[in-house]
Write a structure and sequence with these properties.
Distance between the termini: 39 Å
Organism: Candidatus Entotheonella gemina
GO molecular function: oxidoreductase activity
CATH architecture of one domain: Orthogonal Bundle
Bound molecules: fe (ii) ion
CATH class of one domain: Mainly Alpha
Shape: globular
Number of helices: 8
GO biological process, one term: phenylacetate catabolic process
Structural class: mainly alpha
Largest sheet: 2 strands, antiparallel
CATH topology of one domain: Ribonucleotide Reductase, subunit A
Strand content: under 5%
Protein name: Benzoyl-CoA oxygenase
Order of helices and strands: HEEHHHHHHH
InterPro entries: Aromatic_CoA_ox/epox, Benzoyl_CoA_Oase_BoxB, Ferritin-like_SF, RNR-like
Number of strands: 2
Helix content: 40-55%
Radius of gyration: 20 Å
CATH superfamily of one domain: Ribonucleotide Reductase, subunit A
């Protein structure tokens, strides 16, 4: 299950053994890179960023740190190891062996699920495009970029499934994911939450707290899918999702902590005075919390 980094698209799915698939994905790649350039993190093309890149799906390989220029990040296709003898855990087909190919009767439902999941990944990168320019600290900036490159890889994961298992329809869907954009009036992203602007860090922290949590449950259920390639893809994605929620949770904790400290220092809960002192007052935090929840 080692990841082959000599390939143009790093992968552990023996992509070079399937020339047609490899060529199709390699022709999708330049558009992906153009998208990253145009709608990914703004003005970061030349910066060295300290990032985690997976070099294998084993526990010692998924977190490999180093400086990379983000457009050179090695986005690739990584599936968790297959589990021998895995059977379907729920529903009508409970107990039957998991599917290695898409069963005809579930083809359109599965395609819809994968497209909807895939569409959210680049959408969040688009929503967060300008946040690097107002980051509260280098620590926050690194976390933001780490999440951005991982959401980019999650898109790759879904595009791989579409290309590998859904034929011409799948390729068409993969192309459409490059045509829709967050907040685009004509071609918006599929889910409403991914068309909302994320203009500042409080909305970003709420997003990683709530929306990534929603994403985690979504992925956790897809990781149980009877369609084995989808399950294995999502199992690996979940290792990264934990960090996204950590960013949201600890971020909100830090904001709230500082608010409480200043309330204590000034002996007030007056929003005006607290804002003047440079912290976010509790009613404002509550409003964002309500919006996110
Ligand atoms: Fe994701
Ligand atoms: Fe995420």
């Amino acid at each position: 299950m080692a990841i082959d980094y000599r390939e143009r698209i790093p992968n552990n799915v023996d992509l070079s053994g399937n020339r047609r698939l490899q060529r199709a994905l390699e022709s999708w790649q330049p558009n992906y890179l153009r998208w990253w350039d145009e709608l990914g993190p703004a003005d970061t093309q030349r910066d060295d960023v300290y990032l985690r890149t997976a070099i294998s799906v084993e526990s010692d390989g998924w977190a490999n740190f180093g400086y990379v220029k983000m457009p050179d990040y090695r986005w690739g296709i990584f599936l968790s190891k297959p589990q021998a003898g895995r059977t379907i855990s729920f529903g009508e087909h409970k107990g039957e062996p998991v599917w290695q190919e898409v069963p005809g009767e579930y083809r359109s439902a599965l395609r819809r699920l994968i497209v909807t999941q895939g569409d959210t990944e680049p959408a969040s990168v688009e929503q967060q495009r300008h946040l690097g320019q107002t980051c509260p600290s280098l620590y926050d900036l690194r976390n933001l970029f780490q999440i951005n490159v991982e959401e980019g890889r999650h898109l790759w994961a879904m595009v791989y499934l579409l290309h590998a298992y859904f034929g011409r329809d799948g390729r068409g869907e993969a192309d459409e994911m490059q045509e829709r954009h967050s907040g685009d009036p004509d071609r918006p992203r599929i889910l409403g939450a991914f068309n909302e602007p994320t203009p500042h860090w409080l909305s970003y922290l709420m997003f990683t707290y709530f929306t990534d949590r929603d994403g985690k449950y979504q992925l956790a259920s897809l990781a149980e899918s009877g369609f084995d390639p989808l399950a294995r893809t999502c199992q690996f994605m979940l290792t990264e999702e934990a960090h996204h929620m950590f960013v949201g949770e600890t971020g909100i904790m830090r904001v709230l902590q500082r608010t409480c400290e200043v309330m204590d220092e000034l002996h007030t809960d007056d929003p005006e005075r607290l804002r003047a002192a440079g912290v976010i007052d509790v009613p404002t935090l509550q409003r964002f919390l309500n919006l996110g929840a």
